[in-house]
Structure formats: structure tokens, C-alpha cells
Amino acid sequence: MRALVRAIDGFSKACGVLAAAIVIALIVLMMYDAVLRYAFNAPTIWAFEINTWLMGAAFVLSIGYALSHDSHVRVDLLYSARSRRHLRIVDLVGFLFLLLPIAVWSTWGLWHYFYEAFKSSERTGTSAWNPIIWPFRLILFLGFLAFSIQILAEIIKRIASLTGRPFEAVAGTSEHDND
């Protein structure tokens, strides 16, 4: 199990690194388009959609990474001034009965959303460029798939911690799960 969790955490880290690279590319492309538009009065026909896709891709690819580093926002009512054991139980219940079902349901729906666009060669219809939309929908699906898998890893970590066999601390991760 520990090897599986390490592999999932590694995959989430790779998705996070990819998301960071996408944000850098997004910044460069936005600057390029702004210079073309305002300095040369020559806007691009593709910038709006590419920038939207890149921002969406960066967001969905980083969700699992944020979860693996315990960086998501929590409800203070359930989380403030509680013991670590209580926090792990709250996490486990939330992951099992709320987050995992919603993430799996969303991932399943995004698969169909992608597949229908792929089969029909659907296009965006929002610009003169009008590209096919399935590549972006595939990224949405993959991001939510990575998130769903990371939730499973977090469930395994919480169970291990609650049973007295916590995972060893890994550099760059939260101590929340490791003590």
C-alpha cells in the first residue's frame, strides 16, 4: 500500500509541476497577445480560447497536488482546536462520504463530456478560430481522475495513521498526516 500511495503522490506532484509550467506558458502567451493587440493593433484569433484552456488546465491539474500537500480550505467549525486524531477522523469521513463520491461522479461525467466531443468533433463556437474542444475536455477528465486517485491515497494515509501505522514524513508534505 505504501508504494501505491507514494506512486499516487508522485503522480500528483508531476501534475502540480505541469500545472506550474502551464501557468508560466499562460503568462507568456498573455503578454504576447497584449503586446500584439496594443502595440501593433494586431490581436490574435486564438488567444482567448488558449488562455482559457490553459488556466482551466492549470487549475484541474493542481487539485490533486494541493490535496496531497494538505493545502485545501477547510470548515473551521469542524477543524479548529481539535486533536490530531479527531482531525484525521473528520478527514476520513469527509473523504469517504463526500469528496470521493463527488469526485468519482464528476470524473465519470467528464469522461462522457470528453468522449462526446471527440466523437462529434465538436468545436468551441466562441471565436473565429473555432478549435475542436475535445483536447481541453480530456485535460478536465485527467485532472479530475488524478484528484480522485489522490483522494484514495489520502484515505489510505488517514486509515494508516488512525491504526497506528502513519506514513513517514516526506520532504515538502504536511506534517498533518505524519505524526
Give a written overview of the molecule.
- This protein has 179 residues and is mainly α.
- It has one domain (2-177).
- Helix content is 73%, strand content 0%.
- It contains five helices and no strands.
- α4 runs antiparallel to α5.
- It is elongated.
Question: Any key phrases for this structure?
Answer:
5 helices, 179 residues, 0% strand, mainly alpha
Strand fraction equals under 5%
How far apart are the termini?
A: 18 Å
SS field, number of helical segments:
5
Mean pLDDT: 90
Helix content: over 70%
List the helices and strands and how they pair.
Elements: H1 2-39, H2 47-68, H3 76-79, H4 84-120, H5 134-162
Helix pairs in contact: 1-2, 1-5, 2-5, 4-5
Overview in brief:
The protein has helices at residues 2-39, 47-68, 76-79, 84-120, 134-162.
